[in-house]
Amino acid sequence: MRYLDDVIINGNASTVTVGAGNSLGDVYRALDPLNISVVIGRYEPVGLGLLVGAGLSFFNNRDGLSIDNVESYEVVLANGTVLNTSTSTHSDLHWALKGGNNNFGVVVHYTLRSFRNQGAVYGGLMTYPESSLDQITDVVYDYHTKGAVEDVLTHVQPVYGYDGTTNVTINFSPVVYNARVNALPPSLSGWVDTPHTNNTLRLTQHSDLVAEYNAGYPYGLVQEQRVFTVYADRQYFKDVWFLFRQWMQNYRDVDGFYGLHCNMPITPRAVAQGYARGGNALGLENDGNRTLAGILYFSLQSARFLFITE
After folding, report:
1. Cα angle, residue 265 at apex, residues 212 and 196 outer, rounded to 5°
2. Contact 140, 263 (CB under 8 A)
3. How far is 178 from 19, CA to CA, in rounded Å?
4. Based on CB atoms within 10 Å of each CB, which residue in 196, 207, 239, 280 is the most buried?
5. Helix 206-214 / helix 24-31 crossing angle, nearest 10 deg
């Protein structure tokens, strides 16, 4: 699969076809010099499986989920048949692949909606100490319910990290404004106004950001991940992180133990974009005019095997 690494600009650059062997970093590095963007993920070494899962990207607030920006899948079925799906060809399979993961065949190429960008964005990584966590969680909620809804060029991925070795928790959040500007707009001011320990915001490109976000990211020998979706709720955001951190402290003696928690919004506009483009298999279209805490993501990592029965 790794050798399916082609990136093809189609026609007037309204679509781009990418081989399933590409990483996200590969695609960004191919497209950034051409000032072309597609709706894919945010961490350099990650593959393209998010294009059959859901797909949170820099452009969710404006363009919806990554799966809703797939024009066509080239998929190999279990019997060896190769099909190209779209909203007009094998439309039932196309719908099922958008959120159905790899249950229906092996996707070898994705044709994605693409668009011209301004050649640069303003973004970086904001890091906050434990003393700022309560305040930054208020900012997270406000972003879910206002910033991401009212300013569709914004993108933030709030990340909390617990280091079992030091028993210290921080927040390190990618913050991006998808335009050629020299400062964050008022819709993102809370992220710089909250006391922080590091700020790498600058005019840059997505290919640089996906490399930065992955640098120093803890992997560990073992990883376990869980996600679920709720409506955005200020107190719930605070309670769920507090309880997760409290629970993790029971395992801080495990070598290399590290826990992550992310709150990532799926706005009403993002849901509507999917519905307008033929729908998907996620079942979000009846969620009303409220922002979902798109994914409450929980991850545990350690340097050796960890068996938890609670």
Report:
1. 50
2. yes
3. 25
4. 280
5. 150
Q: What share of the chain is helix, strand, coil (3-state, %, to 5)?
A: 30, 30, 40
SS (H, E, C) 35-46: CEEECCCCCCCC
CA distance 50 to 98: 9
Residue 159's φ and ψ, nearest 5 degrees, are -130, 125
- Give me the phi and psi of 83, to 5 degrees please: -125, 150
Q: What is the pTM (predicted TM-score) of this model?
A: 0.92
- CA proximity to 299, closest of 218, 212, 215: 218
pLDDT in tens, the chain (310 residues): 889 999 999 988 899 999 999 999 999 999 999 999 999 999 999 999 999 999 999 999 999 999 999 999 999 999 999 999 999 999 999 999 999 988 899 999 999 999 999 999 999 999 999 999 999 999 999 999 999 999 999 999 999 999 999 999 999 999 999 999 999 999 999 999 999 999 999 999 999 999 999 886 666 667 777 888 888 999 999 998 899 899 999 988 888 888 889 989 999 999 999 999 999 999 887 766 777 765 567 777 775 544 444 4
Which residue do the tokens 């607030």 mark? Answer: 61
Task: For tokens 């992180």, name the residue.
Answer: 241
| Residue 84, number of CB atoms within 10 A of its CB | 13
Question: CA–CA separation, 30 vs 6, rounded Å?
Answer: 10
178 secondary structure, DSSP code? S
CA dihedral 188, 117, 292, 288 (to 10 degrees): 120
Instruction: Kindly state the tokens that stand for 118.
Output: 């301004």
What is 105-140 written as a DSSP string? -EEEEEEEEEEE--S-EEEEEEEE-GGGHHHHHHHH
Sign, CA torsion 142/177/113/39: negative
